[in-house]
Amino acid sequence: MKKSSALLSVKSLLYFAPIMLLAAAPAGAIIEDGAAAKQSLGTVSSADPRATAAGELILRQGGSAADAAMAMMLALTVVEPQSSGIGGGGFLLHFDGDDGALTTIDGRETAPASAKDDLFLDENGERLGFIQAVLGGRSVGTPGNMRLMAKTHEKWGKLKWEALFAPAIKLAEEGFEVNEVLHSRLNRLARVWGEFPAAQKLYWRDGKPAPVGTLIKNPDMANTLRTLAKEGADAFYKGPIAEDIVKTVQSGHPNKGDLQLTDLASYKAIQRDAVCNSYHQYIVCGMGPPSSGASTVLQILGQLERFNLGNIGAENPLSWHLIHESMRLAYADREKYLADADFVSVPIQGLLDPYYLAQRSNLIKVDSSISSYDAGTPPGSEKRTAAEQREIPGTTHFVAADGDGNLVSMTSTIEGPFGSQLISGGFFLNNELTDFTFVPEQDGAPVANRVQGGKRPLSSMSPTIVFDKNGMPILALGSAGGKRIIMHVAKTLVGVLDFGLPLDKAIALPNIYFARDAVQIENGTFLADKSDELAAYGRTVLTSNIGSKVNGAQFIDGKWVGFADPRSPGTAFNE
């Protein structure tokens, strides 16, 4: 089916699936029979209890789901500095409980206009080592979260703009305690922070990473947030804040970047088409390119649909063999075809074409592993060379639902732990440019995700909303974890939609990924105890600590209920 400027309802998608691209909906387009059921207050879920508290406070003050989500984004800038914040970007899905519109906003960072495709090559044309590329200004893209926040508040905010900043300002001014997660990330980066005195000044004590329980106050962050609360998002992209960002990128470390004031001034958050497809009797929707999340998650699900995973069961290694095989096929396509669709032709419709998915699914065997997991040739694709793109686990996800049936699912990131390690105005600047593929051409063909000026790097962030057979939203979720994000979301969806588990139990299912030719499964789980049975399908099985940070909400008994990953310190507020 061709992309249409008009939006079909989710109910109609149940009959005319698959729909690849879903534009922002006009009134009544998503839900034909009325908005989602009302409830008294709502729910929020985030990866840190202090951010969850910020979202709860906003709901109690009469704020919308969008207000609560933006307050959590700001609070996470303070208390989860290793993962996300205003120095980075994100993707947001919003469902409107009144008119049923599903809207997505792309706040992904952009490369400086001057960036060339040899950004991460040395003077001999050889690719830089990853650490060489990450540290310092070279890796910093134009942050997008403040423009995303402004667009979100303009469209769906109920409280005044400045009210959303109050919880984060209080945390920055009065201080917050270092938890185990932040302490572990500080320890991990301790060996490189000799080059970053501003980061040391904030987060080290007595010459070493601050121990658990240390009170961290961030007056520079508080001042930045006060300015933004008073003057709006423009104050981030023009004036003293922008000038300090550019100065920090260009001179804050020997590995200098070329971000300019014009890059900040011209940045725009973009409203894009959602990517949706049917799975069983459901419609699953997510973010389009430059996110690879929705298309890859939907490929994984689409290739699994012919197998009755519900009958096979969650504890049967066969289910996990099939999930692994589908994952590998979908990720192979991701590496070859996905990139910023404003710069590269991305065959989303072809990747989700039912005949193509059936062809790919038929490669999966129930008794053995596929010999190799090469990318396919989806309809509408151009000649490309597959090229691995590396993402290091950082990122955060949060959801919010309010009493009017509005729903937000947002993933936010500065890429790796503490991004570029550079601090401006109290917040860390991202290292998102290392999400580009370093080598721009392979085997005589251009790499889709190569660096280009103004381009947005490929992302695995996968904010997701699921609709039931009546066209009602029933599930919202996402995760952190770099390239594993896609798999954490897909696994959780299988847990709910195939195995029939409640969301919290689905999140807790074993995590699964891959490493070269091996299957990776989460240690300490029932699946690890059955690794020999899984290995019998023909792949080496490795057990390892595959953490995740899934946050989500499920519509249960007439109201939204939030959940957080038991592997994280995350929490949910449920009235």
Model description:
By secondary structure, the chain is an alpha+beta fold. It is 33% helix and 18% strand. The protein contains 21 helices and 25 strands. A seven-stranded antiparallel β-sheet has the order 1-10-11-18-19-23-24, sandwiched between helices. It has a seven-stranded antiparallel β-sheet with strand order 9-4-3-13-12-2-25, with helices on one face. A three-stranded mixed β-sheet has the order 20-21-22. Strand 14 and strand 15 form a beta hairpin. Residues 1-20 and 22-38 have low confidence and may be disordered.
Judged by helices, strands and strand pairing, the structural class is: alpha+beta
What is the beta-strand fraction?
Answer: 15-25%
Distinct helical segment count = 21
Mean pLDDT rating:
92
Record the SSE blueprint.
Blueprint: H1 10-16, E1 21-22, E2 42-46, H2 49-60, H3 65-79, E3 89-95, E4 102-107, H4 130-134, H5 145-156, H6 166-174, E5 176-177, H7 180-189, H8 197-203, E6 204-205, E7 208-209, E8 215-216, H9 219-231, H10 234-237, H11 240-251, H12 261-265, E9 270-272, E10 274-279, E11 282-287, H13 293-304, H14 309-312, H15 317-337, H16 348-351, H17 354-361, E12 396-402, E13 407-413, E14 423-424, E15 427-428, E16 441-442, E17 445-446, E18 464-467, E19 473-478, H18 485-497, H19 503-508, E20 512-515, E21 518-522, H20 526-529, H21 531-535, E22 541-544, E23 551-556, E24 559-564, E25 571-574
Parallel strand pairs: 21-22
Antiparallel strand pairs: 1-10, 2-12, 2-25, 3-4, 3-13, 4-9, 5-8, 6-7, 10-11, 11-18, 12-13, 14-15, 16-17, 18-19, 19-23, 20-21, 23-24
